[in-house]
Design brief:
single chain; alpha+beta; Small Protein B, Chain: A; 7-stranded antiparallel sheet; 4 helices; 7 strands; globular
Length: 160
């Protein structure tokens, strides 16, 4: 029996955010995934270091991997420090992995990480999105709609 998922994930401390992804991609589904980290990676994330701006997720066999995410070496680490841009395994249940695989293979979608954060239990999580890339005209219309919504809010606040 699957536990119910909330629309907004339980984010207590956001470490890294991919703000560009919301502009470049039309986001369809969102998923919360655990991430397999080494000890020095967790410490570096707790210090607020790390980026997911250039990264993506890839489905290999029956696993999902986070590729090209940068978690810099821990400053107080020793010779057993981690490699900054190594592929990291993501933890999802089988149904979610199959849904992502179907979206990538059949619909030509991309799995994009939106953010890395710590939840209320102190566990590092990755917010993933199954998204479709936007072309330049789509980006312009998205930006125009965004500006109009912002202007509407200003007008309502001023005259309302």
């Amino acid at each position: 029996m699957a536990r119910p998922r909330h629309e907004a994930f339980d984010k207590t401390k956001t470490v890294a955010e991919n703000r560009r992804a919301r502009f470049d991609f039309a986001i369809d589904d969102k998923f919360e995934a655990g991430i397999v980290l080494q000890g020095t990676e967790v410490k570096a994330l707790r210090f607020g270091e790390g980026t997911v701006a250039e990264s993506y997720a890839e489905v290999k066999e029956d696993e999902i991997w986070l590729i090209n995410a940068n978690i810099p070496e821990f400053s107080h680490g020793n010779r057993n420090n981690h490699e900054p841009q190594r592929p990291r395994k993501l933890l999802l249940n089988r149904r979610e992995i199959n849904k992502m695989r179907a979206g990538v293979e059949r619909k030509g979608m991309t799995v994009v990480p939106l953010s890395i954060y710590f939840n209320s239990q102190g566990r590092a999580k990755v917010e993933l999105a199954l998204a479709k890339g936007r072309k330049a005209p789509d980006k312009r219309s998205y930006k125009k709609d965004q500006d109009w919504k912002r202007e509407q809010g200003r007008l309502l606040k001023k005259h309302g």
